[in-house]
Amino acid sequence: MAGKRSIFQEVDEAGTDQRKPPQTGMIDKGGALGARKAIRAWLVALFALVVVMILVGGLTRLTESGLSITEWALVIGTLPPLSPEDWALAFAKYQETPEFRLVNHAMTLDEFKVIFWWEWGHRFLGRIIGLVWITGFLGFWAAGRIPAGWARRLLAIGVLIGVQGAVGWWMVASGLVGDRTSVASYRLAIHLGLAFVILGLLAWGVLELSRTQAELLQARRLRETRLFGLGTGLMHFTLLQIVLGALVAGIDAGRSYTDWPLMAGQIIPPDPFDIEPLWRNFFENPGLVQFIHRVVGYLLIIFALVAFLRSRGAASRAVRTGFTVAAVVLVAQMVLGIVTVLNGAHLHVAITHQAGAILAWVVVLVARFRAGYPPAQSVRGRGEKA
């Protein structure tokens, strides 16, 4: 005997239930969800490569290897010197640079090979990143698997990767002319800043693709608008501090004043404006550049703590956690910066500080993303997605 039916239940003449099962997730219908996962994996790979690229770039700078290759050959330069004659030619070209003539004039061929491999490795990684992007983008595009609205975003990342290669050579070229023995600090800052912009776009894409489009649309209705604004400000503030850190590294300002909290026993370092014209001090005066980096660091921590306190009132536990982690990491990064100064920017401490900048940048982006798209949670606050 058939079970009881609701008076609203539709049946055919034979008494068969005609109700259709509910269709959910139509916005991710078909292969769209699978495509999102595949593209996310591709962006994760690019993200990891860019992280390695930034760290290798930092080591290239710290080992003063950036000017060891004096020309840009996108294809031919992929291969390193393979014979004694090739090495002799590469070394001869380096011997014509101001850095060799004024600083490294006693360098041997074996010593040159050390700095050459750092710079070659940095450039080779750049080529690998470009190849991974081109292969992935063209593959997804040809297969028609790029979700709606993502083609331009993914293309923009590729364009920025290409621009970054050009900026890298523009930076290196500044150290190969006149009597310069290093690259221009402002060009180094632009180069590093653009690397973090690319890293940020990749991270944001990974975060968005970690959820379905339907989940994102639902989460946006719960947006913590004020916290999202604070997260945006914190993001820009953090990027500014990273760029200022690149200015410090560009002129070795971190090794100029190794006391803290004072600088040479003073609040303001001596002779902060002794370079003419005045504007050059903000890029080339070690005392002033480091002082600005310190002050902005203090202000960044204050901003992060304000955002943390404001986040205490957020309904989502994930949002509260995001801003807590961001504040903790930024404070730890400031402490690490102080340790770096006290150790005269020793190589291992300095590269750890740069790795800390990457971590700080990512956790700030995660906090902002969670404020913009709070993860779903149960009434009891459990079951949240990361």
UniProtKB/TrEMBL annotation:
<comment type="function">
    <text>Catalyzes the conversion of heme O to heme A by two successive hydroxylations of the methyl group at C8. The first hydroxylation forms heme I, the second hydroxylation results in an unstable dihydroxymethyl group, which spontaneously dehydrates, resulting in the formyl group of heme A.</text>
</comment>
<comment type="similarity">
    <text>Belongs to the COX15/CtaA family. Type 2 subfamily.</text>
</comment>
<dbReference type="Pfam" id="PF02628">
    <property type="entry name" value="COX15-CtaA"/>
</dbReference>
<keyword id="KW-0408">Iron</keyword>
<dbReference type="InterPro" id="IPR023754">
    <property type="entry name" value="HemeA_Synthase_type2"/>
</dbReference>
<feature type="transmembrane region" description="Helical">
    <location>
        <begin position="227"/>
        <end position="251"/>
    </location>
</feature>
<feature type="binding site" description="axial binding residue">
    <location>
        <position position="293"/>
    </location>
    <ligand>
        <name>heme</name>
    </ligand>
</feature>
<protein>
    <recommendedName>
        <fullName>Heme A synthase</fullName>
        <ecNumber>1.17.99.9</ecNumber>
    </recommendedName>
</protein>
<keyword id="KW-0479">Metal-binding</keyword>
<comment type="subunit">
    <text>Interacts with CtaB.</text>
</comment>
<feature type="transmembrane region" description="Helical">
    <location>
        <begin position="154"/>
        <end position="172"/>
    </location>
</feature>
<feature type="transmembrane region" description="Helical">
    <location>
        <begin position="291"/>
        <end position="309"/>
    </location>
</feature>
<feature type="transmembrane region" description="Helical">
    <location>
        <begin position="347"/>
        <end position="367"/>
    </location>
</feature>
<feature type="transmembrane region" description="Helical">
    <location>
        <begin position="321"/>
        <end position="341"/>
    </location>
</feature>
<keyword id="KW-0560">Oxidoreductase</keyword>
<feature type="binding site" description="axial binding residue">
    <location>
        <position position="353"/>
    </location>
    <ligand>
        <name>heme</name>
    </ligand>
</feature>
<keyword id="KW-1003">Cell membrane</keyword>
<keyword id="KW-0350">Heme biosynthesis</keyword>
<feature type="transmembrane region" description="Helical">
    <location>
        <begin position="184"/>
        <end position="207"/>
    </location>
</feature>
<keyword id="KW-0472">Membrane</keyword>
<dbReference type="InterPro" id="IPR054616">
    <property type="entry name" value="HemA_synt_rhodobact"/>
</dbReference>
<feature type="transmembrane region" description="Helical">
    <location>
        <begin position="39"/>
        <end position="59"/>
    </location>
</feature>
<keyword id="KW-0812">Transmembrane</keyword>
<comment type="pathway">
    <text>Porphyrin-containing compound metabolism; heme A biosynthesis; heme A from heme O: step 1/1.</text>
</comment>
<dbReference type="InterPro" id="IPR003780">
    <property type="entry name" value="COX15/CtaA_fam"/>
</dbReference>
<feature type="transmembrane region" description="Helical">
    <location>
        <begin position="124"/>
        <end position="142"/>
    </location>
</feature>
<keyword id="KW-1133">Transmembrane helix</keyword>
